[in-house]
Design a protein that fits this description.
The protein has 27 helices and 14 strands. The protein is an alpha+beta fold.
């Protein structure tokens, strides 16, 4: 195939766009029939991680506020900074304002699958694949890599931007200019705004590697020409990336602030010795790469997946991993097509040099996915921040999918249109069934017709806790980290990916040991710890054999929501109140606090009125984090200043202020400086970029008028 013929096949016709869009919708319906008929995903991180975030996010949108802080997980954390809420991602802004949390989450998932298929098809076309082979490549990429990770919302929401950014990179390198640079920058920015930056980082590395790899595989260029072309291409991509980073500053700067205070910042003091973060977690053991061939009939069989046999293979690094993070499977027929590229005759007919670039990138990604290079590259910016080197297999998945499509093109060249369509459809149909079967065995989430979140309004536990919370703030110590958040109250312990380092210390984690039959529960030392952290209630799945004095059983019964989340059938849950708990607001000395009246409780604002019999220090048992400030007003509404009222040196688990004797109103508010600076940078960059585009458009119009 000549160069002109290759280029002509890179620009799809309208009818080809329509076919890709319709086929993407058809595959979506095939894969996710249960979701389209009202069902929902259960398992993995859906209920412990994502739904508690999305519920609060939705409530804050409904109240007309920006959800900067999450006050229900543990002692709170900066929701925007954690990033996986994707607060400023456009689709999040739309769906969670219009739909219920359950509907918004699943509609977002479905739309991103559809978009990912079309985007992967379009990128495949830009690499010289014909229509039918490009459709197959998109199927292999999207439905081979993502369904096994269906409990990880970030995988598909971030993954859709991987082929989009690569497509825009290709367009920019072919014809550099401001408009194409702006489109690539916008794609980078949207990928970052979607949250969870691991795939965004992989995408950025891949886009920067493309122009470098390109000059390495073009034999007609001299050494000087290669370096010049590499510098030019890398320069354009780097400027686009920098622009994208500035556009997404509203998300990036708060995350960088949290990162410096997180467990991922390493050991910072003696107290932090238990902070454990291993960036090699989620690697792909080298021998587990044989899943490409030994898939559902061995490695992906349920028994082998559950036994975690891949960790006992030679060459596996010391870190932990799981089948979801380490999943890499193309389908047996696409793998066979890739192996045919070993035939020199077929290889010589492959168009262009793009397939060589993707072989280089796929090999490099696979090597890093094993985790071997983490101790070395982990010292570089970015590599040491993210877990899951197995996620680099997304590069190999796309590269091998493209190679399979190119080989199919060679096989079907000069065949009749009917034969091309028939063979492509047969390969695609068999591959789709193959991929579904494999992903079903690996995934830790399943679709059920009546998901638990729809039963939340019928939960006696949620109703009881909310009733108690209206009187005084509730904090529940419960199994299943974060899940009780969905009842509308604070709960401990926490489950966070990027979390404040304070939550990963022994002194915090030791407070949450479970009950034993050999002693009163909670014991004296543990009761002190729970009291210090503002815990007011205990939730257990078994009755406490020897409840401590002051522990009152409020109710025991199966719960319509939690029993379904935990798969406990009709077994009862047990809710206890800790009578005498100091609760969320504590004073020093303890007897100085006579009365508290809670006036307002929002995630980013807490206001209450106190009556104190003596000067004292008030401590709010919530996370101390940059951005929180306090005001103390007297009965006449006059703001008190130091030394009458001043913030006290705080520990990580309390926000403290001195208050004189009398009746006063205390207001704690969260105002993130990193968010404000990021918003300013994002808005300023967008304004400058739009101004430059408008100026260029006017200059072009003037030139056209003169001509």
């Amino acid at each position: 195939m000549g160069a002109e013929e290759v280029v002509s096949h890179r620009i799809p016709r309208t009818s080809e766009w329509l076919l890709a869009i319709c086929l993407g919708l058809l595959l979506l319906c095939w894969q996710w029939t249960g979701l389209l008929t009202g069902g929902g995903l259960v398992g993995g991180d859906t209920y412990p991680y994502f739904f508690p975030q999305k519920q609060l996010l939705s409530e804050e949108f409904a109240a007309g506020r920006i959800p900067l802080w999450h006050d229900r997980t543990a002692l709170g954390y900066p929701l925007l900074a954690e990033s996986q809420g994707g607060i400023f991602y456009p689709l999040t802004q739309v769906l969670y304002r219009l739909l219920s949390v359950h509907a918004a989450w699943h509609v977002s998932l479905l739309l991103h699958y559809w978009a990912a298929y079309v985007a992967a098809w379009r990128y495949a076309r830009s690499q010289g694949l014909r229509q039918w082979s490009a459709l197959l490549a998109a199927l292999v990429f999207v439905y081979g890599w993502f369904p096994a990770r269906s409990s990880l919302e970030w995988s598909i929401i971030g993954g859709v931007w991987f082929p989009v950014c690569l497509w825009q990179t290709t367009r920019l390198l072919e014809n550099p200019g401001l408009r194409r640079l702006s489109l690539l920058a916008a794609a980078f920015a949207l990928h970052l705004l979607a949250g969870h930056f691991a795939l965004a980082f992989i995408t950025q590395l891949t886009c920067l590697a493309v122009p470098v790899c390109h000059v390495l595989v073009v034999p007609s260029l001299s050494v000087a020409e290669r370096w010049r072309a590499a510098r030019t291409g890398l320069g354009w991509c780097s400027v686009a990336l920098l622009t994208g980073l500035l556009l997404s500053s509203v998300q990036l700067l708060p995350t960088l602030e949290l990162r410096r205070a997180s467990q991922r910042d390493g050991i910072r003091s003696e107290a932090d010795r238990t902070v454990a973060f291993n960036p090699a977690y989620g690697h792909l053991p080298p021998l587990y790469v044989t899943q490409l061939a030994a898939s559902w009939w061995y490695w992906h069989s349920p028994e082998v997946v559950q036994s975690r046999a891949m960790l006992r293979t030679p060459g596996a690094c010391g870190a932990d991993t799981n089948a979801v993070e380490a999943h890499l499977y193309l389908g047996l027929l696409p793998l066979g097509l890739c192996l045919l590229a070993l035939n020199r005759r077929i290889r010589r007919q492959l168009p262009g040099s793009g397939w060589k670039i993707w072989l280089l990138l796929s090999a490099a990604a696979l090597i890093y996915a094993t985790g071997w290079l983490v101790p070395v590259l982990g010292r570089l910016p970015g590599f040491g921040f993210f877990m899951g080197p197995g996620r680099y297999s997304i590069v190999s998945q796309l590269g091998l999918a493209l190679l399979a499509g190119l080989v199919l093109d060679v096989i079907l060249r000069r065949r009749s249109a009917v034969l091309r369509v028939g063979v492509s459809a047969a390969v695609a149909g068999i591959t789709m069934v193959d991929l579904q079967w494999s992903a079903l065995a690996v995934s830790d989430a399943v679709v059920i017709a009546n998901p638990p979140l729809k039963s939340l309004p019928d939960s006696w536990l949620a109703q009881t806790l909310q009733s108690e919370d209206r009187l005084s703030p509730v904090r529940v110590f419960a199994p299943g980290a974060n899940i009780v958040n969905l009842c509308g109250v604070s709960s401990v312990p926490q489950y966070l990916g990027l979390g404040p380092a304070a939550y990963f210390r022994t002194e915090f984690q030791a407070a949450f040991a479970m009950a034993t039959d050999a002693e009163d529960y909670p014991g004296t030392a543990q009761a002190v710890q729970l009291d210090r952290l503002g815990v007011t209630h205990l939730l257990t799945t078994e009755p406490i054999a020897r409840p401590a004095v002051g522990l009152q059983l409020l109710r025991s019964a199966p719960d319509a929501f939690l029993n379904r989340v935990w798969g406990r059938g009709v077994e009862p849950c047990f809710l206890y109140r800790i009578n005498g708990s100091a609760g969320r607001l504590q004073s020093e000395p303890a007897d100085a606090l006579q009365q508290v009246r809670w006036l307002q409780r929002q995630p980013a604002r807490v206001e209450f009125q106190v009556t104190t019999t003596a000067d004292c220090v008030l401590r709010l048992a919530d996370l101390s984090f940059p951005g929180w400030s306090v005001q103390v007003l007297n009965q006449d509404g006059v703001l008190l200043n130091a030394p009458e009222a001043k913030p006290v040196e705080e520990d990580d688990y309390h926000r403290s202020v001195t208050v004189p004797a009398g009746i006063h109103r205390v207001i704690w508010t969260y105002d993130s400086g990193s968010f404000r600076l990021g918003l300013l940078l994002s808005a300023g960059t967008l304004a400058v970029l739009l101004g430059l585009l408008l100026r260029e458009s006017r200059m072009r119009a003037t030139v056209n008028d003169r001509s």
